[in-house]
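User: I'm putting together a small comparison set for a docking exercise, and I want a reference complex before I start. The sequence is below, and the ligand is flavin-adenine dinucleotide. Could you produce the 3D structure with the ligand included, as structure tokens?
Assistant: Of course. I'll restate your input first, then give the structure tokens for the complex.
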Amino acid sequence: MRRISLIIAAVSALVFGSCNNGKQVKLPVTRTFECDVLVVGGGPAGIGAAVCAARHGANTILAERGGCLGGMATAGLVAPFMSSTTPDGQTMLIRGFYEELVNRMEAQGGAIHPLKAQIGSFSAYRDKGHHGLTTFDYECLKRTTEEMCKEAGVELLYNALFVRCDKHRGRITAAYFATKAGIWKIVANTYIDCTGDGDVACSAGAPYVYGDGEGDIQATSLFFVVRNVDWKAMDAHDAACRKAGDYEGQFYMREILAAREAGEFPMWRQKIALFQNLDGTATVNMAQSDGVDGLDPKQVSDALTEGREQAAIVVKFLRKYVKGCENCELASTAEQLGVRETRRIVGEYTVTTEDAKNSVRYEDPVFCCANHMDIHRKGYVEYVARNTNDPYWFPYRALLPKKVDNLLCAGRCAAAERPVMAAIRVIPPCFAMGQAAGTAAALALKAGVRPKDLNPTALVTTLREDGVYLPE
Ligand SMILES: Cc1cc2nc3c(=O)[nH]c(=O)nc-3n(C[C@H](O)[C@H](O)[C@H](O)COP(=O)(O)OP(=O)(O)OC[C@H]3O[C@@H](n4cnc5c(N)ncnc54)[C@H](O)[C@@H]3O)c2cc1C
């Protein structure tokens, strides 16, 4: 009897709910960890956050639901890294941690530097406005980011799904993870939500916006890879069409229309979208599902299945209509659905579309970029024009959710109006947001202040010292 009560005392009861609203189930905590900074989500933002927090002295855990780092860039098969340069491709804007990562990958033959990627060249989109992409190798990204975590002293915890947190007087006091070995609890001083979906922020009661705020949500896409592409033939067709000014021909838009009429292409995609990888395969972004709630596992399951059906259809289309793809075959489909949009926090400051259009400057800039604002709506892509070609800025306050004192949010769930997030959700800015969040968390801990009270000048100075491009 005594033994039983000791066991019961050893495990603390945990009450589960979905964002604090669902049915409640009591489960025991089987293991507890403590750290200075807990980063949840190991995508581009989470990697940047964890490594930079640890480099600045914070004892850091990075918890990820999957079995590798990279998020959409590995488990989602998204490639290449979108532009990290000025629109003319001449100046690299996203530097710091991202540049270091690219350099390390390039040294291993696992990436092409963005300044070497001009339109029409190996790794660039064959489209206007897409200079400065980074073609990379998925495995090299997984390995290099794990190495960087290890070197910085980040403790990695894979197969750990964040399910909820406890909060007391405006502070998160513990985070709970579903694992194969039961519920694990992590107690940290500061938490960084890099789940893309703002799972931690939601559970902590931080206000957020979902999609357009009125129920509309951008389409999801399942990425896949094809092999046996004849790039010489692809390039020859591309060059001939560009010379003739035949944009529709370049992207096989007429063939897509013809195939749709023949019942061979039921998706609404208007253009082919194949990106050449270092190993000669092509990453394909042509499958698409509308109206999928990326927070609903059942809807995500259905979209994954639909995406794989569409991948088979696209491969048939490519083989029949696209020069150089006559013998292509499906090599792999992504494990994670490409979710463009779910929650964005309401931040201490939320970057507005007007800010980005006009390159508004802030007192607390953490990066600048020049990515397109493109919203993937049902049946078309909406581009939001800017009033200047100058880079636009992102302030530290947009990483700070309202109503929670010891939480930062980086990556796709940060605070920006919809069109701005449609631009800065691409991979290089997400690394930059992560770097800023991790650095800030560590600096705030050292200074003994809340992240909200961190002196922005100290943060900007440290980011500059760490290679972030923040011109006066
Ligand atoms: C269809 C599509 C096409 C795109 N094309 C490009 C492109 O060509 N180039 C480009 O640069 N960008 C592209 N992007 C954007 C880019 O891939 C993502 O927006 C970017 O990866 C977001 O980074 P992140 O770190 O915020 O989130 P993610 O990359 O989504 O990483 C989040 C991580 O958190 C983990 N996670 C989530 N929830 C939990 C939880 N509850 N507990 C524990 N772990 C959790 C996930 O497993 C994942 O590893 C595309 C995105 C989509 C959807």
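Residues 297-321 form the longest helix (25 residues). The pocket of flavin-adenine dinucleotide is lined by residues 40-46, 63-66, 71-73, 78, 81-82, 161-162, 194-197, 199, 221, 285, 338-340, 411-412, 425-427, 430 (CB under 6 Å).
User: Thanks, that's exactly what I needed.
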